[in-house]
């Protein structure tokens, strides 16, 4: 699946076509496709979670922070399949994910934003990465990207995250209509961990209108006069 040009969506599309040719039993083909799709997404979600445990961290152990992590993991692995156990002494959260054929355990670190890493290279800082849609360039979403991530790379990463987000919500309707509503839905509901894994961060869920500053001519003239 990591072969150039064969991403998840392409692979599933090829599988669907192959199944339609391989068996005349439409119900069997649908069942096989659904099971493979589930396994592919599960594998990808587990890889994403492992990467977050390795490189990411929670900012604190506040109940709302832990609840957000619980909600994100439950959306991926199923309600009732995820157990979180915060550890105030070790400053981490033990995670247990119960799957049909195995149980996955791991720990998510807790590290306040801006704190230096205890070992290894320091984490790169984030810089502003405001984005807008071509249909409405004056409506800006306030995001951030890692300082070592070029704007072009951040743009590609954001597009990839959007593609995965909408694939997982394909059976759900968007809130509102039009491109702005679709992107607003994505920004508001995409898991923070999905952004952080790719070097991005969301500051606010709602967009801001672009503001144009105007010089105060009277005050500016008065300052010039006093200097002379």
What Rg is obtained from the alpha carbons, in whole angstroms?
A: 23 Å
Q: What is the oligomeric state here?
A: single chain
Q: Helix content range of the residues, please?
A: 40-55%
Tell me the fraction of residues in β-strands, as a range. Answer: 15-25%
Number of helices: 7
Return residue spans where pLDDT drops below 50 for at least 5 consecutive residues. Answer: 1-5, 171-179
Largest sheet report: 4 strands, antiparallel
Question: H/E series, N to C?
Answer: HHHEEEEEHHHEEH
User: What's the rounded overall pLDDT mean?
Assistant: 81
Global shape: flat
Distance between the termini: 70 Å
Structural class: alpha+beta
Total number of beta strands: 7
Structure description:
This protein has 228 residues and is α+β, with helices and mostly antiparallel strands. Helix content is 47%, strand content 19%. It contains seven helices and seven strands, in the order αααβββββαααββα. Strands 4, 5, 6 and 7 form a four-stranded antiparallel sheet that branches. A three-stranded antiparallel sheet has the order 1-2-3. A hairpin with a 4-residue loop joins strand 1 and strand 2.
Characteristic terms for this protein:
228 residues; 3-stranded antiparallel β-sheet; alpha+beta; 7 helices
């Amino acid at each position: 699946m990591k072969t150039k040009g064969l991403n998840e969506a392409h692979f599933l599309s090829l599988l669907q076509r192959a199944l339609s040719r391989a068996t005349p039993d439409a119900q069997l083909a649908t069942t096989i496709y659904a099971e493979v799709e589930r396994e592919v997404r599960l594998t990808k979600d587990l890889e994403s979670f492992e990467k977050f445990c390795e490189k990411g961290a929670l900012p604190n152990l506040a109940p709302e922070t832990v609840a957000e992590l619980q909600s994100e993991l439950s959306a991926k692995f199923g309600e009732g399949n995820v157990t979180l156990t915060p550890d105030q002494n070790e400053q981490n959260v033990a995670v247990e994910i119960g799957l049909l054929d195995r149980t996955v355990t791991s720990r998510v670190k807790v590290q306040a934003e801006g704190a230096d890493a205890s070992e290894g290279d320091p984490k790169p800082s984030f810089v502003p990465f405001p984005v807008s849609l071509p249909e409405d360039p004056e409506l800006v979403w306030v995001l951030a990207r890692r300082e070592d991530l070029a704007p072009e790379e951040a743009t590609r990463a954001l597009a990839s995250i959007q593609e995965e987000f909408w694939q997982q919500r394909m059976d759900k309707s968007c809130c509102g209509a039009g491109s702005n509503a679709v992107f607003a839905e994505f920004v508001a509901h995409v898991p923070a961990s999905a952004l952080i894994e790719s070097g991005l961060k969301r500051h606010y869920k709602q967009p801001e209108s672009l503001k144009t500053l105007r010089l105060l001519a009277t005050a500016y003239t008065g300052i010039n006069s006093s200097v002379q």
